[in-house]
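Appendix C reproduces, verbatim, an entry submitted by the partner laboratory led by Prof. M.T., so that reviewers can inspect both the input and the predicted structure.
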Amino acid sequence: MSEAHAERLFELADLILAVGRLIYASKEFPAESWTPLESAVMRFIDRSPGTTAGAAAEATRLISSNFSRAVRGLEKKGMVRREVDQHDARRVRLYPTARAHDNLKRLHDVWSRLLDGIVSDPNEIEAVSSTLRRIETELLARARHGAGRVE
């Protein structure tokens, strides 16, 4: 990889982190605050209701103690509920609650308003979203094939 290409990739990663921090730190969000770890776990559970704890921990790349702490925090806040698997009592499934859905709706509204007017062209929004989805998918695939979990 050339130094110029490495520099562009570094800048891309740096910008993704900076924009994510600015969005996350938006003071407009009226719902209960979540830690970054809880946010990662909640995002996965929202997108994969009924997931197992193991699958969610793997997908979020969290070590089991950090994952368990995040789930307990989300349960205390009324965002996640656990159910014993109907087919295997040793397995627990995780589901978002109605309260989590309400918070997600508020978050949707706040973040949409926050970004409104910054990027207006639907094609540009789709191109950026598509690229970020591809980056996320590839990073998860690479992590599964060799990288450790987040401490």
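The beta strands are 51-52, 80-84, 92-96. Additional entries are available on request from the coordinating office.
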